[in-house]
Input
Amino acid sequence: MPNQTIWNADLGDGTYQNPILYADYSDPDAIRVGEDYFLISSSFTNTPGLPLLHSKDLVNWKVVNYLIQNVPADRYREPVHGCGVWAPAIRYHEGTYYVFFPMPDEGIYMIQTKDPFGKWSEPVNIRPAAGWIDPCPFWDEDGRAYMVAGVAKSRIGYKSVLHVVEMKPDCSGLIGPEVKVFDGNENDQTTIEGPKLYKRSGWYYIFAPAGGVKTGWQTVLRSRDIFGPYEYRVVMRQEKSQVNGPHQGAWVDTVTGEDWFLHFQDVYAAGRIIHLQPMCWKEDWPIIGEPVEGKDYGQPVDVYRKPDVGKVEWPVCEPAASDDFTGKELGLQWQWNANVTGDWYTLTKNGLRLNAVPAEENCPYGDIPNLLLQKWPAPEFSCVTKLDLGGLKAGDEAGVISMGMEYGTLVFSRRADGLQARFVTGKQKYGPIVCESTEERQTEPGWLTAMTSTGRTDGDINADVISATEGKNREEDVVFVQYQVKRVGVQDLNDNEKGFPLEEISLSYSVDGNAYILAGVVKAVPGRWVGVKNGPFCVRRGTGEGGYLLVKSVGYRKP
Output
């Protein structure tokens, strides 16, 4: 299935618009190796983890790999919302690519490879302890290696502190004392975190966001000695732009000598989307974005000329969203809700087979491990998933979920007397370590049978057009589920967080792909540190051997 353009930043005239990725690639870091740019992001409990994106022009990106198959701890066989893989860093040193990633309850991990498009090494925990987060490696000219990292108050009891520690040059472990080099609690840089370490013209620079995810700014520290003391300066603020909290990302350059900065913006339900800013230098301090008159910092740009990357040809592209499941492997747009096992799915000539994985009778839909999910690809869109329910056995459930702190699920249940259709909503309360799900609510059941093509698109799941027809199921048990995201206004989360997009999510279904019945509407509320996701699932609530759901296609389009 060709992927319709949903969101692309390339304007086709030598300019681009921000954001360059309207998708939840949270806590990005990036590097340039030759003509190639690589970007990674956090993945929390979704697997495979640590998505790797590739570009040659900094504007058009594709997902090309995942760096870990599963989260390296046994407890992630179930979703542990908000935990897992936090903000990573990627670096290239003497022919090897290195990625450091934190797990706030388990430690700091390192993986490496010679080929970023291929298989990466198994994760090694180089600092097994809770509390340190956001690590970044650095090699100095003398061959010595170091790591900078922040801290998580939820695990260690304090925040806004950065440490530097020497490590073995092969990154296999830390050596020497852990030195506190900056304390944001002693100045106006509270919640400083996500540090990235660089060197230029004899200065050591630590780029670090401060002020909080939704309302913060980009700070840079500098020193002549890697262990400090460091002075600091704010180098990018929101100012008059519409980009709240512009911070946390990566400084990259081009082969022509230009400097650029990739960072995220938290837009609430859709998660943390990616922007690209020009960057210049003044008196050995960077200024990110459009310089603000009379200030020593910049503000985010909306439309700007594309980077000069030299004589490189690179197509206009975006991460895949639609899928007809004809490949040999599952598409890279998909991630599971927890660590995946090999018996969850099979790719067949007829589509993606999702097996009915056993689930406890009282397990909320938001806590099911084998939810197959992908990120929102745009601020507004429609997604139609074609499902064949013919393989379900009595006791099996399948459908499509909109996954966030408030979630909505269109569920089809196979029973002895037919297929039952329900719309289930739930809310989740998240702690730093565990998830407690509240009671779910559902509509009264309707019966999915032959449906008259009336063109009706309103009503609810008990609408008269889905009344039973002599107990007979419709031909081939095929149903179309439409998932729609529509922006309906703006919302203020609190006094300091104003003007966030307010989206409405609706799920509808049809037996012919034309006449849709509205099943229900759910408020767009993100998950813990992640944006809303959507996708199909199949579980077995009963005993005995289950059946399967056949996902024929998933098609995204603009509204």
Observations:
- Residues 431-438, 449-475 have pLDDT under 50 and may be disordered.
